[in-house]
Amino acid sequence: MARLGSAMCVVPPEPRMTPDGEARKDRDGNPVWVVGVSVRQQSTRRADVIEVAVSGQPQGITEGARLTVVDLVATSWEIEGRKGISFRASAIRPEAAPLVVTGGSSGRGKSAAGGDA
Question: Which architecture characterizes domain 7-94 according to CATH?
Fold first, then answer.
Protein backbone atom coordinates (compact mmCIF):
# COMPACT_ATOMS: atom_id res chain seq x y z
CA MET A 1 0.00 0.00 0.00
CA ALA A 2 2.89 2.37 0.65
CA ARG A 3 3.78 2.33 -3.06
CA LEU A 4 0.17 2.97 -4.07
CA GLY A 5 -0.21 6.12 -2.00
CA SER A 6 -3.58 7.27 -0.71
CA ALA A 7 -6.70 5.09 -0.73
CA MET A 8 -10.30 6.31 -0.72
CA CYS A 9 -13.63 4.47 -0.73
CA VAL A 10 -15.55 5.02 -3.98
CA VAL A 11 -18.01 2.11 -3.56
CA PRO A 12 -19.09 1.27 0.01
CA PRO A 13 -18.83 -2.34 1.26
CA GLU A 14 -21.23 -4.83 -0.26
CA PRO A 15 -21.41 -8.63 -0.09
CA ARG A 16 -19.54 -10.48 -2.86
CA MET A 17 -22.03 -12.70 -4.65
CA THR A 18 -21.70 -15.90 -6.69
CA PRO A 19 -23.16 -16.03 -10.22
CA ASP A 20 -26.10 -17.89 -8.60
CA GLY A 21 -26.84 -14.91 -6.33
CA GLU A 22 -25.55 -16.45 -3.11
CA ALA A 23 -23.12 -14.68 -0.77
CA ARG A 24 -19.55 -15.93 -1.21
CA LYS A 25 -17.76 -17.30 1.81
CA ASP A 26 -14.06 -17.63 2.60
CA ARG A 27 -12.37 -20.90 3.58
CA ASP A 28 -13.48 -20.43 7.18
CA GLY A 29 -17.13 -19.86 6.23
CA ASN A 30 -17.09 -16.08 6.81
CA PRO A 31 -18.97 -13.91 4.29
CA VAL A 32 -16.73 -12.05 1.82
CA TRP A 33 -17.33 -8.34 1.30
CA VAL A 34 -15.91 -6.13 -1.44
CA VAL A 35 -15.02 -2.43 -1.32
CA GLY A 36 -14.33 -0.20 -4.33
CA VAL A 37 -11.08 1.59 -3.52
CA SER A 38 -9.51 4.43 -5.48
CA VAL A 39 -5.72 4.35 -5.20
CA ARG A 40 -3.41 7.10 -6.40
CA GLN A 41 0.20 6.36 -7.17
CA GLN A 42 2.41 8.63 -5.08
CA SER A 43 4.68 9.97 -7.80
CA THR A 44 2.04 10.53 -10.50
CA ARG A 45 -1.40 11.95 -11.03
CA ARG A 46 -2.65 8.50 -12.10
CA ALA A 47 -5.46 6.94 -10.09
CA ASP A 48 -7.09 3.52 -10.41
CA VAL A 49 -10.15 1.90 -8.86
CA ILE A 50 -9.71 -1.61 -7.55
CA GLU A 51 -12.17 -3.93 -5.83
CA VAL A 52 -10.71 -5.25 -2.60
CA ALA A 53 -12.23 -8.35 -0.98
CA VAL A 54 -12.15 -8.82 2.78
CA SER A 55 -13.60 -11.46 5.10
CA GLY A 56 -16.40 -10.09 7.27
CA GLN A 57 -18.26 -6.82 6.87
CA PRO A 58 -15.99 -3.76 7.20
CA GLN A 59 -17.39 -1.25 9.70
CA GLY A 60 -17.51 2.54 9.49
CA ILE A 61 -16.64 2.82 5.79
CA THR A 62 -18.59 5.33 3.72
CA GLU A 63 -18.16 6.68 0.21
CA GLY A 64 -15.41 9.31 0.15
CA ALA A 65 -13.72 8.07 3.34
CA ARG A 66 -9.94 7.76 3.39
CA LEU A 67 -9.00 4.14 4.06
CA THR A 68 -6.34 2.02 5.67
CA VAL A 69 -5.97 -1.26 3.75
CA VAL A 70 -4.12 -3.94 5.74
CA ASP A 71 -2.04 -6.71 4.11
CA LEU A 72 -3.15 -6.05 0.52
CA VAL A 73 -2.38 -8.99 -1.80
CA ALA A 74 -2.81 -9.00 -5.60
CA THR A 75 -3.33 -12.35 -7.31
CA SER A 76 -3.43 -12.85 -11.07
CA TRP A 77 -5.94 -15.37 -12.38
CA GLU A 78 -7.07 -16.95 -15.66
CA ILE A 79 -10.32 -18.86 -16.13
CA GLU A 80 -11.71 -20.07 -19.46
CA GLY A 81 -9.68 -17.56 -21.50
CA ARG A 82 -10.45 -14.60 -19.22
CA LYS A 83 -7.66 -12.97 -17.22
CA GLY A 84 -7.54 -10.52 -14.37
CA ILE A 85 -6.10 -9.53 -11.03
CA SER A 86 -8.00 -9.92 -7.79
CA PHE A 87 -7.20 -7.95 -4.64
CA ARG A 88 -7.65 -9.17 -1.09
CA ALA A 89 -6.87 -7.61 2.28
CA SER A 90 -6.93 -8.88 5.84
CA ALA A 91 -8.80 -5.70 6.89
CA ILE A 92 -10.12 -2.42 5.53
CA ARG A 93 -10.94 0.37 7.94
CA PRO A 94 -11.43 4.13 7.94
CA GLU A 95 -8.18 6.04 8.26
CA ALA A 96 -7.79 7.61 11.67
CA ALA A 97 -8.87 11.23 11.45
CA PRO A 98 -6.29 13.77 12.58
CA LEU A 99 -7.11 15.76 15.70
CA VAL A 100 -8.50 19.14 14.69
CA VAL A 101 -8.32 21.97 17.18
CA THR A 102 -10.84 24.73 16.51
CA GLY A 103 -11.13 28.18 17.97
CA GLY A 104 -8.61 30.11 19.98
CA SER A 105 -8.09 30.90 23.58
CA SER A 106 -9.57 34.33 24.11
CA GLY A 107 -10.19 33.77 27.78
CA ARG A 108 -13.93 33.83 27.20
CA GLY A 109 -16.28 30.94 26.64
CA LYS A 110 -17.90 28.22 28.65
CA SER A 111 -16.30 26.52 31.59
CA ALA A 112 -16.30 22.76 32.02
CA ALA A 113 -19.33 23.15 34.30
CA GLY A 114 -21.27 24.82 31.49
CA GLY A 115 -21.24 28.39 32.84
CA ASP A 116 -19.42 31.43 31.50
CA ALA A 117 -15.67 31.38 32.05
Answer: Beta Barrel (2.40)
